[in-house]
Amino acid sequence: xxxxxxxxxxxxxxxxxxxxxxxxxxxxxxxxxxxxxxxxxxxxxxxxxxxxxxxxxxxxxxxxxxxxxxxxxxxxxxxxxxxxxxxxxxxxxxxxxxxxxxxxxxxxxxxxxxxxxxxxxxx
Length: 123
What we know:
Strands 2, 4, 5, 6, 9, 10 and 11 form a 7-stranded mixed beta sheet that branches. The chain has a 4-stranded antiparallel beta sheet with strand order 1-3-8-7, with no helix packed on it. The chain has strands at 4-7, 10-13, 18-24, 33-39, 46-51, 58-60, 68-73, 78-83, 92-99, 112-113, 117-122. The chain is globular. By secondary structure, the chain is mainly β.
C-alpha cells in the first residue's frame, strides 16, 4: 500500500512558477513509476508527466514540454513537478499517482492517487 500526499499548489500570475511535491509513504516507493495528472472543472483527469522508478525516463504531454519538469528523490520518497512559464490554461487540480507499470501515461494504469492540490494561474 502506498499513500500519496501532494503539496505546493497555489495562486500564481501567468508567467510565474510553482513546484509541486508528492510525498509517498511506504518502503516500496522506488519500485513505482510516478506520474502527474491534472483535472480542470468539468473535464477528465489528463496526463501531464511521468517518470520511471530510477528517473532515467520521463514523458510529458505536448502542452507542457519545455515548461514542466518531473523529477524524483527516492531517498526522500518524493516526486516533484517544477512548473515555469505558467499559463491560465494550466489551472486545474493536480494529482500524483503511482503505478507498478514501468512508466505510464494512462490514468487507468495507476494504482494509487493522492488527494490533489489546486493550481490557479491568473491572467
